Amino acid sequence: MEKWKDYEEWYFQSDYDLETANDMLTSGRNVYCIFMCHLSLEKALKGLLIKMTGEFPSKTHNLIYFIEKLELKMNEEDFEFINTLNKVSIPTRYPEDLRKLFSTYSKEITIDILTQTKELQSWIKQQ
User: Fold this and answer.
1) With 0-12 CB in 10 A as exposed, 13-18 as middle and 19+ as buried, what is 20?
2) 79: which residues sit within 8 A by CB, 6+ positions away?
């Protein structure tokens, strides 16, 4: 089997991206920390899709798409977090005004996002 068709490879990459998010936080690169949080959850969800359905995931970056496709039941707080992280994916990936993002995502906010991402990534992998 090709490696990218193996859900464990997606989970491995999700873990790697989460470690990278942590490193970005440590180095003060909050915007990239948040971007890597999104990427980590995206890869975890794509891995879960392969695990549950055997279907190779589409190339979308939309986390809500995968939540709905997988029919995952999550509490409202977690869903809102995923929705928020989904919305900041484009601005953190292709910032129009990077300096503005610096002031928007303080260290405290970024720590909160990283913490929630770690919890959700673990939950996704347990499904």
Assistant:
1) middle
2) 67
The CA R_g of the chain, rounded to the nearest whole Å, is: 14
Specify the CATH architecture of the domain 3-126: Up-down Bundle (1.20)
| 4: DSSP letter | G
* 71-88 pLDDT, tens digit each: 999 999 999 999 999 999
Identity of the amino acid at 122: S
Going by the DSSP 8-state scheme, the letter that residue 72 receives in this structure is -
Q: How far apart (Å, rounded) are the C-alpha atoms in residues 48 and 79?
A: 17
- Whether the pTM exceeds 0.85: the reply is yes
CA 13/CA 7 separation, integer angstroms: 10
81/76 Cα distance (integer angstroms): 9
Task: Return the HEC string of 23-81.
Answer: HHHHCCCHHHHHHHHHHHHHHHHHHHHHHHHCCCCCCCCCHHHHHHHHCCCCCHHHHHH
Residue 6 tokens, joined: 């193996």
